[in-house]
Specification:
2 copies of one chain form a homodimer. Chain A folds into 2 domains: 5-127 and 294-330, Isopropylmalate Dehydrogenase (3-Layer(aba) Sandwich), CATH 3.40.718; 132-285, Isopropylmalate Dehydrogenase (3-Layer(aba) Sandwich), CATH 3.40.718. The model of chain A has no long low-confidence stretch (mean pLDDT 89). An 11-stranded mixed beta sheet of chain A has the order 3-2-1-4-11-10-5-6-9-7-8, with helices on both faces. In chain A, 54% of the residues are buried. In chain A, α4 packs across α6, α7 packs across α8 (195-206) and α7 (157-175) packs across α13. Chain A has 343 residues and is an alpha/beta fold. Chain A has helices at residues 18-31, 43-52, 57-61, 78-84, 89-99, 111-122, 157-175, 195-206, 233-257, 262-270, 272-282, 308-324, 326-342; strands spanning 5-10, 35-41, 63-67, 104-107, 132-138, 143-147, 180-184, 211-216, 228-230, 290-293, 298-301. The longest helix of chain A has 25 residues, at 233-257. The two termini of chain A are 40 Å apart. At the A-B interface, α9, α10 and α11 of A face α9, α10 and α11 of B.
Chain lengths: 343, 343
């Protein structure tokens, strides 16, 4: 990055709070000399923890603590968060984007509350009804993007079309080539699937400017057949989490298999670099950072259980989206679609 | 198995037809001396292929060829199969169960057509509206069962309750202990999820005689938190197939990683037994054989792409369900539920 970028970070969010968010922030600050971070959270606690970290003056100069009140809890309902947590680290971090003091915010906190604050303070893009959660998943060739991953249950076909448009623009902005859009379904033939996907199929097919390649089955998600996979948030969340669950199971079975006896332990020792490389490549949660797409601003959601490296990855993703100016590219494209619709 | 069991097998179904089904049948016949198989398909072709296999007289005596007409194609719609394929190997195999000449049938053909023939010839159990596809998936401790895996899209809460009851009975029949039932959802709190699962949650919770443990998230599917996981067929199909896709991707990455250079090839050679064992344990499609539950008879669906061992596994599963008498156990339990409902 060349120009100055300011991120607001919910320092209290996630399973580990400042223990993870602070070291992640300082490591990303070291890497990006033009980055500044507004660290939102309990000022005393953050000051104390930062004090222990022996930071250079340069890092200290680019790290500002912003005091906030009670944190959002993981079991807070979105409506309760809106009513009672407006001075939480999460809400304040989002508001800083709305006010223009930060270019993007990053939080590992409660997803529902983050969406609610995003809608309240940043507003939706014109033409988009609801935010969608988009994230990348690994494929044989690299990765693809999938949305929605749980922000919306009971989507209409219009919502799925909006996801297709937003996903397409985001992919093109980040990867520099047009996206092949696939619609997640249980069979490749148009007769299969439920009412929702059949209607969405027709709608997306008719939308000009989209490179729509039709239905994608579950087994093709990780095969790289599409660049952007569109689905209802209920289905997307379960598909991704099931796969993460299986990856975790495989990883445990590998560990158990390689520790059963002395010979196998020796093998594991010899094969450690390979096994580690594989684990890193394959964990779907390693590429951490899901974007709340459709808002007039950049909000990045980190896994709640993210460790330092994972949270740092989410920060880096936010920087890339700031540099690529994703929300304004989406709004431009939406404006052109809306115009062509009216004609 | 001690008593005589007769299976009808759709010899023409699946991606490979008799090339896979015949060797699978003969290998299972060798293992089970009390098994008989009615092999349904093109008589000339089957006779020719069996002739090449040099079978013992004992095996020949327990293998009967039943001639059929045109096969069901993978892209036949269920309605077209019902109209035009009544003398297909699949339809004939199902009818033999309906007539009582076989105790169960096994097919690797078109799922929609198999369900349609099942409903037409075997009829539904009283109290069940639609068949559901149930199969086992691996967990850390062993395996659990998941249904529906694609027979039904747009399920009502009543359907999900029926799945819970059927799955519970099947698990108890096969595993000998009561099943912990989980409902697949995107969050553990009752406020999350779509309309369908919220309504089903209430209904299943109130059903006496079920050991319902509440919502299960995607990442818990393979964690063994529940013994039977209930979901809509659209969601279940996508969750399972996505996970299979990820398992395949991991397996390819492992192969690529272990063949990159000579040292790694040597490691792979040394670790071959471990890697092979892992691959066998982890492939969700290896435990082949999905039951069409809710019919008055046993219909086992094999993966279309099953190889000999996988198809043999599906045959073995059918034998177990015959021995455990799963459909009549389900109908008994349903009768007791229906009675308690009326009181």
């Amino acid at each position: 990055m060349s120009n100055r970028v300011i991120l607001s970070v919910d320092a209290m969010g996630g399973d580990f709070g400042p223990r993870v968010t602070l070291p992640a922030c300082t490591s990303v600050l070291k890497k990006h000399p033009a980055l500044e971070i507004l660290l939102v959270g309990e000022a005393d606690l953050l000051n104390k923890q930062l004090g222990r970290m022996r930071l250079s003056d340069d890092i200290k100069a680019r790290l500002t603590i912003v005091a906030s009140g009670d944190s959002v809890q993981m079991d807070d309902k979105p409506s309760a968060a809106i009513r009672h947590r407006q001075d939480s680290s999460m809400a304040v971090a989002v508001k800083m984007v709305a006010e223009g003091s930060a270019a993007a915010c990053v939080s590992a906190g409660n997803t529902g509350a983050l969406m609610a604050f995003g809608r309240q303070h940043l507003k939706m893009q014109p033409g988009i009804d609801r935010p969608a959660i988009i994230a990348s998943v690994p494929t044989m060739q690299g990765h693809c993007y999938m949305l929605d991953l749980g922000a919306n249950v009971d989507c209409s076909e219009e919502h799925l079309l909006q996801f297709a448009i937003m996903g397409s623009v985001m992919f093109e902005a980040l990867e520099g080539v047009p996206a092949r859009i696939g619609l997640l379904n249980i069979g490749e033939e148009a007769i299969k699937g439920n009412e929702q996907v059949r209607l969405a199929h027709e709608l997306i097919r008719q939308q000009k400017g989209l490179n729509y390649i039709g239905f994608i089955e579950g087994n093709d998600v990780f095969a790289g057949k599409a660049d952007v996979i569109v689905c209802d948030g209920f289905v997307g969340n379960i598909a991704l989490k099931s796969s993460e669950g299986l990856a975790k199971l495989i990883s445990r079975k590998v560990r158990r298999s390689f520790t059963r006896n002395l010979y196998r332990r020796l093998l594991a020792f010899l094969a450690y670099p390979v096994l580690r490389e594989l684990q890193e490549q394959m964990d779907p949660s390693r590429r951490n950072g899901a974007t709340l797409l459709g808002l007039q601003g950049i909000v990045m959601k980190s896994h709640g259980g993210a460790n330092k490296n994972c949270f740092a990855y989410a920060l880096e993703q936010a920087i890339i989206e700031v540099e690529q100016n994703v929300p304004s590219k989406i709004s431009e494209r939406l404006a052109s679609y809306l115009t062509s619709k009216d004609q």
